Amino acid sequence: MNSVSVVVPTYNRGEALGLVLDRLLASDLQGLAEIEIVVVDDGSAVEAAPITNARQAPPGFTLKCIRQENAGPAAARNLGFARSHGDIVIFIDDDILVSQGLVRQHVEAHELNPGSVIFGLSVPPVSPCAHINKVFDLVSGSRSGNSRFELKSIISSQHLSVERKDFPTGVYASHLRIPAAEEFELSARLRQRGIGIFLAREIGAVNDQPLEVSYLCEQQYKHGMGCAEVAYKLPGTLILDQLSRIAAANGPILLDDTPRTKCKKIAKVLMAISPMRTRLVLLCRLSGRILPSYSLNAKLVRFVIGVFFFAGYREGLRHFGPRTQ
């Protein structure tokens, strides 16, 4: 019987972390000896320990909180990995609300796909505005596909599980600080090691964040910075087609760029300045009234979050590029 550890890195999540832990502590133990939950406080302004200590772990569970100086999600996950003991280790972000069966489903996925890395889907909470939910579906496309286990080239760490024996020295690259950077690095390393990455479509969770355009834009900005960080610090990760395309589309204008690509980059530069980005977010908030169809609104949302991604990538180039030359 596999032992299981759940590592929850957290940063400035406040009382909302409690709901994440409550859902984990209600997990189904069927077929599991124990569930060990390790919360890693990544230097939050208000410590997470009181939130953790306020909860009594029921029989079959252990719960503890450890703290580190702020070093980013990769370092926090690695510390939790080092301080846990389970044969199967599940990393769950501090805004992911799990179902009762999620932990067990991850373990079963490893039994069916031994020696692999498994991740599942995360969907937004049901919005009182059906219009926004429809736009999210059109933008993300996350709910398409029928395969139970789908082989992927890029991981998502929102809820992801590994087998401890495959990672004797840690899972993530601790020196990468910006979210998304560590995901691309791990994806490239798994490819080089021949370890399969599987999306388990039946394993779902809820992302406890507001389904709002400004939040999506903020996340895409950070994602863009993370892509720039990993591409410049670890250029070997450009073996990943997705990252290579991102670097080509969002990097500086090159002599061998096509005229169309040059025009797109110039347009993005003009749109990506901070005052313009603010106006674009306001336009998206009004678009449900202005545009007559969901598909047109989705195109606008795609464009705007693309501008924020570009702005984040360019900021990443300025921040990380000179340090790696």
What does this protein structure show overall?
With about 325 residues, this protein is α/β, with parallel strands linked by helices. The protein is built from eleven helices and nine strands. Strand 2 (about 35-40), helix 2 and strand 3 (about 60-70) form a beta-alpha-beta unit.
List the domain count as a whole number. Answer: 2
Using the coordinates above, name the CATH class of the largest domain. Alpha Beta
Q: Provide the low-confidence segments as ranges.
A: 128-132, 138-144
Q: What separation lies between the terminal Cα atoms? A: 49 Å
Q: What value does the average pLDDT take?
A: 89
Sheet with the most strands, sense and barrel status: 9 strands, mixed
Order of helices and strands: EHEHEHEEHEHEEHEHHHHH
- What is the CA-atom radius of gyration, in angstroms? 20 Å
Named CATH topology of the largest domain:
Spore Coat Polysaccharide Biosynthesis Protein SpsA, Chain A
Q: What oligomeric state do these chains adopt?
A: single chain
Number of strands: 9
At the fourth CATH level, what is the homologous superfamily of the largest domain? Answer: Spore Coat Polysaccharide Biosynthesis Protein SpsA, Chain A
